[in-house]
Amino acid sequence: MRLIPTLNGRGGGNQRRLLAVVAVAAIVIFGLALASWIYTSIGGDGSGAGQGTEQHEGSEGVDRGDAREVASSVLTTMFSWNPGTDRSPADAVGRALPQLTGTARADAQATSGPVRPISQWSQWAEQKTLVVATAPTQTMRSVPISDGANTVTLFAPVTQFLQPVSGAATGYAKFTVRVTLEKVSGHWLVSNYTFTTIG
User: Fold this and answer.
1) CA-CA distance, 145 to 188, in Å (whole number)?
2) Which pairs from 137-144 meet CB under 8 Å and 24+ separation?
3) Which neighbouring-strand residues pair with 130?
4) Residue 37 has what pLDDT?
5) Is 89 within 8 Å of 116 (Cβ atoms)?
6) Class assignment of domain 67-198?
7) Do 62 and 74 form a contact (C-beta atoms < 8 A)?
8) Where is this region: Disordered (predicted)?
9) Given phi > 0 = left and psi -120 to 50 = alpha, else beta, which region is 128?
10) What is the reported pTM?
């Protein structure tokens, strides 16, 4: 008598084992893919902040038709630093260059060579501490001036955190940036920014 493979009964043993092996393999592959994505996103491949930070906080995935999203992307990119690979904060400004225009772009391009880093830079580099910035769109406020349809000015609060290799992040700095954006070929770009305080 021929046995018909089933999930139950005598003929189903091999099939159940095969299904179990396939399920375990799928879980392992998914886990490895997820771990690799996280590792690359935080710049853990050792390639430097120019790639890791840009991939996480640059123009990728940003709605360039939304002025607030572009402002948030530019500010988080400019004020997030990896002292272990960045020569100074100027490297972060360079990563934001594709989203700059006008005065902001000219100022960024005018910087030749590394700018002298802040005093804690070498200590952060030795400890592999990252400086991570946030600039949530929901905290931004429009400046009540008539700029026209292709220009927007915002007050954008920025918070920087120190993120050590292990342990919780701690607050480092809070400030507000007045950001002006211009629409160029249907896309918003930051044309100027100045540090200010409000409220």
Assistant:
1) 18
2) 137/66, 137/68, 137/69, 137/71, 137/72, 140/68, 140/71, 140/72, 141/198, 143/178
3) 163
4) 32
5) no
6) alpha beta
7) no
8) 46-67
9) left
10) 0.68
- Cβ neighbours of residue 7 closer than 8 Å, sequence gap 6 or more: 15, 16
DSSP per-residue letters across the chain: -PPPP-SSSGGGHHHHHHHHHHHHHHHHHHHHHHHHHHHHHTTTTSS-HHHHHHHHHSSTT--TT-HHHHHHHHHHHHT-B-TTT-SSHHHHHHHTGGGB-HHHHHHHHH--SPPPPPTTHHHHHHHT-EEEEE--GGG-EE-SS---TTEEEEEEEEEEEEE-SSS--EEEEEEEEEEEEEEETTEEEEEEEEEE---
Q: pLDDT at position 149, please?
A: 83
Amino acid 65 reads: G
- What does DSSP say about strands 170-184 and 130-134: parallel, antiparallel, or unpaired? unpaired
Report d(CA 70, CA 190) in Å as an integer.
8
d(CA 49, CA 126): 15
Q: Report the DSSP pairing between strands 130-134 and 141-142.
A: unpaired
Contact between 78 and 86 under an 8 Å Cβ cutoff? The reply is no
The residue ranges of the chain whose pLDDT is under 50 are 1-11, 14-15, 17-58, 198-199
Convert the pLDDT of each residue in 148-191 to its tens digit: 789 999 999 999 999 999 989 999 999 999 999 999 999 999 99
Amino acid occupying residue 37? W
